[in-house]
Amino acid sequence: MPFTISDLELKTDLPDIPDTIPVAVLASPCAKERSGSARRLAEILDLEVAGTVDVPHGYAVGGSHGQVEVFTASGAIRARNTDRLSAYPDERRKWADAKLGDDGFQLGKRSTEQLTRSAMEILERSELRDNWADLDVVLGQWALLDEKGNELESGPGRATVRLSYAAEGIPLIGPGAKTHLHFDPDEEGAGGLLARFFHVHRAVEASTDVATQSLEEAFEPLLTQSWAGLEVDPSSARLSITSAKLGLLALPADVAQGFAAPALAVEGQLAGAVAADGRELTVGFGQYVALAHPKSLASSGLATSGPLVHGEVVRRRGKGE
Q1: DSSP assignment of 149-198, as one string?
Q2: In terms of domains, do 249 and 268 share one?
Q3: What is the pLDDT of residues 268-306, one digit of tens each?
């Protein structure tokens, strides 16, 4: 017997879901138009371009020190300088003004401003700067543990400038709408050297409003799904939602996408699931829950009237209770 909506425990407030919500109609990308951006990124990363090769998701330019790849399905670009990525023996990086705060190590104002400025210059030069909705700079973290798992030492790692996007005032969520520029510190430890780059943001051609499903309809795929061989009894197991974010779902860079429909990015836990060996487990999950009503999408000419395929489980972890 599957879970019902009354079995779902909400440990977070769900965002307000209106009766109708925009769907972003996306432009078809042209991979050839990215060739100039790919060449300029190769110059920025100090890559000697020895040639161009076809790869399963598009094409790549570069040589022995790294490459720039273009994704045909989305026009996304991924690039890296392999010499810079392998220049350090581990994750440790020395930034001049990195400090430990309540949320881990953070860059100081000077480095944050310099990296942000460098990121904007790189995007301008490569003709990939779009109107972004949010920007932040985060530091990777590393820790050295003893044999018992106690932390002996910790510090900052590579810095990343992250940009996110929106359409019709609604955040674009999912793996297909983001820009990440990964920097290692320069000799002074304040500015940065670009080591890795990823940009995917499909252009929005138009938008149209569609009706949303009820919460019971939206959550049905999650409530009725199987759990990879685990035995789940709704009378004893507990299904809870710990976070939920409303947005328009942007699919991965290697997937063609004609429109971005509304969805909830939910995270939660399934407690009390039983494995084949009898162990009771708690499973954490992350999933996209479709909100657009299939009939409304069909009447808008965006999809068939069949059931929507619910989001893949994007994160799972299990532990014994």
Answers
A1: S-EEEEEEEEEEEEEE-EETTEEEESTTEEEEEEEEE-TTSSSEEEEEEE
A2: yes
A3: 999 999 988 889 999 999 999 999 999 999 888 886 544
Q: What whole-number distance in Å separates Cα of residue 171 and Cα of residue 264?
A: 11
Supply the pLDDT for residue 32. Answer: 81
Residues 41 and 162 in one domain: yes
Say which residue the tokens 């710990």 belong to.
242
CA–CA gap between residue 251 and residue 306 (Å, rounded): 20
Closest-CA residue to 249 (of 260, 238, 240): 260
- When computed from its CA atoms, the radius of gyration of the chain, rounded to whole angstroms, is 22
Note the pLDDT tens digit of each residue in 29-65. Answer: 887 889 999 999 999 999 999 999 999 999 999 999 9
Token duo for residue 151: 């932390």
* Number of domains the chain contains: 2
Final residue in a domain of this structure, among 175, 202, 229: 202
User: Quick one: 235 exposed, middle or buried, by C-beta within 10 A (0-12, 13-18, 19+)?
Assistant: exposed
Neighbouring-strand partners of residue 56: none
Distance of CA 218 to the CA centre of its chain: 22
Proportion of the chain above pLDDT 70, given as a percent: 93
Model confidence over 237-248: pLDDT tens digits?
999 999 999 999
Pair (159, 130) in one structural domain: yes
Q: Show which of 202, 222, 248 is a domain's final residue.
A: 202
Q: Are 177 and 246 contained in the same domain?
A: no
Scanning the structure block, which residue is given the tokens 């425990």? 9
Domain limits for position 43 = 31-202
Q: Check whether residue 189 and residue 261 sit in a common domain.
A: no
> Which range is least confidently modeled, 43-47, 121-125, 147-151, 313-317?
313-317
